[in-house]
Amino acid sequence: MSATLATMLQQLEPEWDIRIYERLSDVALESSNPWNNAGTGHAALCELNYTPERADGTIDITNAVKVNEQFQVSRQFWAYLVNEGTLPEPTAFLNSTPHMSFVWGEANVAYLRKRYDALKDHPLFAGMEYSEDAAQIRRWAPLLLPGRAKSQPIAATYMASGTDVDFGALTRLLVDGFIDNGGRLEVEHTVRGLKKLKDGAWRIKLRHEIGETPLQVEARFVFVGAGGHALPLLQKSRIPEIRGFGGFPISGEWLRSDDPEIVAKHLAKVYGKASVGAPPMSVPHLDTRVVDGQASLLFGPYAGFSPKFLKTGSWFDLFGSIRLHNIVPMLQVGLRNFDLVKYLVGELLASREDRLDALREFYPNAKGDDWYKMVAGQRVQVIKNDPEKGGVLQFGTEVVAAADGSIAGLLGASPGASTAAPIMLELLQRCFPDRMAAWTPRITRMVPTYGGTVSESPETADRVLGETAAVLAIAR
User: In which pathway does it act (predicted)?
Assistant: First the structure.
């Protein structure tokens, strides 16, 4: 998020002095690290949680279309940066990887069939294929069928235009371009405090971790892009807009295989249905991952709990974030989300064999010796105080900005980095409203559909999808 915003601002105001302060020794070592996330270019092509079934049995595709539109904005922005030379060859961070949904059981098959019917004629989902035929599904993803009972009802959808994104590589490349164009990156600098000055600027207190040297800088605008740690930093700023917000941290683990023979038989990201009470980020999936040119398979994530807001955070993060203004919403969320608590307890008590059994629901012939455990990234879900409902746990992202636009931050996790570009455009609109008219021509160069939608017509969708796919060297 920070790399995306810094790049956008540098494109819009090349004379501005823009700096990134990073607590760790390099960028993309936390949530953007490729092994801390699934690397899915989230476009709702396969994620079933974006298409819930209504009470009347119909499928709601509203959120799926919204998420896909957001990802198309990111694709347009990346294509622009590739054309401008700010990003190198897109294969350095992007790979074509088909996206599949896969379900079993009569009720789930009926659901997926209705989902396919609801999406197939939409311009953003053109080309989606559906099958209940075992032979066809085996051609799409060979690992899913051998060892499965032939009597079991199964179904799958397939989108060739899916992508696997190395968000770690993308972040580093964005920051490299930012530095080449005059930006500054200061690593191993921890923000210790934020204070609003009388002239409207912010005084930021920092500590250089090498030698523990204290220092401070002043800025007219501050973006807090600290992942899970954004909440406590925004609390330090004391802006009234952060009142009522809390965070619920969820950790996770993967099973990973690097066996070339196994990896060669699975080129897809295959998503299933979540367990009852499971948060959206815990939807099970068997994924192809390509990191530094090397392909692996990940399965998971298995949810867990840690009070840390970052993998490299403190055990006191959760408790330190509790304030008088957010304790009631946090307690209300705990009382109202018993299914989530039950799910997390079950995940924490699960043995390695239990986790392998979950893998075998996707890949029946999986052998435990071929897979090893990896700890995924830490996520902090947003808890906010709704005036009518009280404490609400939400699974998206939330931009929190001061009324004067001088400071803003991003809370939440899903769908994460895939939507960095549209979220940062939203932030620009909220924090720099007086500059948007002058910036709009340049923004439209970066994102041609800015102000509209890719799916406003089949012709627009066809043109935009084709143009970005050609630049990014991925499937259309």
Answer: Carbohydrate metabolism; tricarboxylic acid cycle; oxaloacetate from (S)-malate (quinone route): step 1/1
> For residue 22, which phi and psi values (nearest 5 degrees)?
-120, 130
What token pair was written down for 226?
Answer: 């600290």
Query: pLDDT tens-digit profile of 75-104?
Result: 999 999 999 999 999 999 999 999 999 999
pLDDT digits (tens, 9 = 90+) for 347-374: 888 899 999 999 999 999 999 999 999 9
List 392's β-bridge partners, or say none.
384
Which tokens belong to 281?
A: 């980020």
Q: Enumerate the β-bridge partners of residue 40.
A: 164
Report CA-CA distances (Å) from 158 to 94, 268, 362, 445. 19, 9, 16, 32
Q: Which residues contact 100 (CB under 8 A, 6 or more apart)?
A: 46, 140, 141, 156, 157, 158, 159, 268, 269, 270, 271
pTM of the entire structure?
Answer: 0.94
Burial track 372-391 (b if 16+ CB lie within 10 A, e otherwise): eebebbbbbbbbbbeeeebb
CB–CB of 123/462 below 8 Å?
Answer: yes
How far is it, in rounded angstroms, from Cα 128 to Cα 114?
13
Residue in this structure with the two tokens 């957010």, named with its chain if needed? 326
CA distance 392 to 245: 10
Give the SS3 label for residue 412: strand
Instruction: Give the number of other Cβ atoms within 10 Å of residue 324's Cβ.
Output: 7
More confident residue, 130 or 282: 130
